[in-house]
């Protein structure tokens, strides 16, 4: 299993999209996180029990805004949510991995923002980090999300610096250039991974 990560506005989605175009099985952590909290799922039941009906919408789906407001204001609440969701996400990931193996795939990519922060990169076979220069990152984030310089910088500063992620990376994609330049780097890494895992 190969991890794919980066910092906010680094261009991880561009890289993930191109890997999918190349035929690589890819699992997105954000999608797993949504799947495990669908109504009736064990994590949904635990969230309702821990946080109450006020974090649910009228149709019983999770009200992400209400839950987010709770956990960002309360460290204990955030940890409680992680205790509920993280093991379920890992379990769902393993289910996907097993299915891909049964389908004859030799390797897959796990796309997640916090791989290094959570030390999840330690159990991966390889790690790809998408990197951009701080000024490029700031400008892209401001443009993408319509943020002020201060607000964008605050979001960047809340994350682990990309240089720390690069230290543990097996492959680094420099996304300071054009989309075609980034895709060319992905193509090269794809060739290397195919050679590595398809022996």
Automatic annotation (TrEMBL):
Record GO biological process: coenzyme A biosynthetic process
Record EC number: 2.7.1.24
PROSITE patterns tied to this protein: DPCK
Positions of ATP binding: 9-14
Pathway annotation from the record: Cofactor biosynthesis; coenzyme A biosynthesis; CoA from (R)-pantothenate: step 5/5
GO cellular component: cytoplasm
Subcellular localization(s) per the UniProt record: Cytoplasm
Assigned keywords, A-Z: ATP-binding, Coenzyme A biosynthesis, Cytoplasm, Kinase, Nucleotide-binding, Transferase
Cytoplasm recorded as keyword: yes
Reactions it catalyzes: 3'-dephospho-CoA + ATP = ADP + CoA + H(+)
InterPro entries, A to Z: Depp_CoAkinase, P-loop_NTPase
One annotated GO molecular function: dephospho-CoA kinase activity
Reported function: Catalyzes the phosphorylation of the 3'-hydroxyl group of dephosphocoenzyme A to form coenzyme A.
Family from the record: Belongs to the CoaE family.
Protein name per UniProt: Dephospho-CoA kinase
Species: Bradymonas sediminis
């Amino acid at each position: 299993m190969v991890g794919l990560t980066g910092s906010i506005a680094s261009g991880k989605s561009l890289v993930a999209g191109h890997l999918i175009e190349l035929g690589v099985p890819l699992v997105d952590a954000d999608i797993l996180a949504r799947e495990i909290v669908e109504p009736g799922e064990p994590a949904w039941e635990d969230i309702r029990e821990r946080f109450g009906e006020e974090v649910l919408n009228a149709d019983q789906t999770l009200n992400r805004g209400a839950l987010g407001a709770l956990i960002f204001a309360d460290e204990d609440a955030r940890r409680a949510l992680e205790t509920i969701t993280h093991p379920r996400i890992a379990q769902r990931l393993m289910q996907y991995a097993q299915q891909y193996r049964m389908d004859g795939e030799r390797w897959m990519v796990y796309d997640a923002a916090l791989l290094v922060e959570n030390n999840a990169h330690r159990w991966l076979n390889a790690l790809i980090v998408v990197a951009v220069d701080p000024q490029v990152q700031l400008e892209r984030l401001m443009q993408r999300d319509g943020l002020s310089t201060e607000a964008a910088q605050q979001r960047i500063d809340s994350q682990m610096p990309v240089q720390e992620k690069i230290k543990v990376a097996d492959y680094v994609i420099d996304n300071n250039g054009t989309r075609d330049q980034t895709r060319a780097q992905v193509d090269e890494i794809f060739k290397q991974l195919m050679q590595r895992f398809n022996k």
